[in-house]
């Protein structure tokens, strides 16, 4: 897998990811959430007191794949342009 563009906002994030088609999107999300949680707990041990159940991320996510009607460049542009403004 390769993480392309990423935009971190106050309560969520957007990112573009390239992955082989044999890896299901749900598995990609599971891997990213699991690995990032381990890194956060290692780098910031105090988080374990706040998230005692080990759950930092919520269960939801949204996936959009490239194909007819949308390109990688369009998705990257969307990610880059995200902001806190409503």
Helix content: 25-40%
- Whole-number tally of structural domains: 1
Most strands sheet: 2 strands, antiparallel
Poorly predicted parts: none
Topology pattern, helix = H, strand = E: EEHHH
Main β-sheet, spatial strand arrangement = 1-2
Verbal overview:
With 86 residues, the protein is of the alpha+beta class. The chain has one domain (2-80). The chain is built from three helices and two strands. It has helices at 25-43, 47-50, 72-80; strands at 2-8, 13-18. The chain has a two-stranded antiparallel ribbon. A hairpin with a 4-residue loop joins β1 and β2. The N and C termini lie far apart (31 Å).
Give the gist of this structure.
The protein is of the alpha+beta class and 86 residues long. 37% of the residues lie in helices and 15% in strands.
Q: Any chance you could write out the topology, listing elements then pairs?
A:
Layout: E1 2-8, E2 13-18, H1 25-43, H2 47-50, H3 72-80
Antiparallel strand pairs: 1-2
Task: Supply database-style keywords.
alpha+beta; 86 residues; 3 helices; 15% strand
């Amino acid at each position: 897998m390769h993480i392309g563009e990423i935009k971190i906002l106050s309560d969520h994030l957007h990112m573009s990811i390239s992955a082989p088609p044999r890896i299901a999107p749900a598995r990609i999300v599971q891997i990213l959430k699991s690995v990032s949680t381990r890194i956060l707990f290692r780098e910031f041990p105090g988080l374990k007191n706040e998230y005692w159940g080990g759950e930092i991320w919520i269960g939801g996510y949204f996936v959009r794949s490239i194909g007819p009607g949308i390109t990688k460049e369009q998705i990257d542009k969307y990610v880059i342009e995200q902001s806190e403004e409503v």
